[in-house]
Amino acid sequence: QVRLVESGGGSVQAGGSLRLSCAASGYTSSRQCMGWFRQAPGKEREGVASIQSDGTARYADSVKGRFTISKDNAGNTLYLQTNTLGPEDTAMYSCTADPSYYACTTLRPADFSYWGQGTQVTVSS
Description:
- 4% of the residues lie in helices and 49% in strands.
- It is mainly beta.
């Protein structure tokens, strides 16, 4: 039983920033890989970023250089710092976790075992 609860979403102007958070509970062994996905209406769900328990991070090309994924020392909170936001970043952002590092290498939805309910990010202008 892994529970993931996102927060930090909201509405911002283009060029602004948001820091998304994901509070995680359950066995740490069940979330050796954690990540963020996003989905906008009319678009497929896409992987945004992942981070392994050893700190290895990966990013989608669309957010590389603008977004930063991180976690606290205990791995109980996952973060996504989003900078230089544009309208194309508008989406529901979901936190994910999986017991295996494999999911972090693929960043595919089917490879992740646990999901949060999502937090909405809306970028205007």
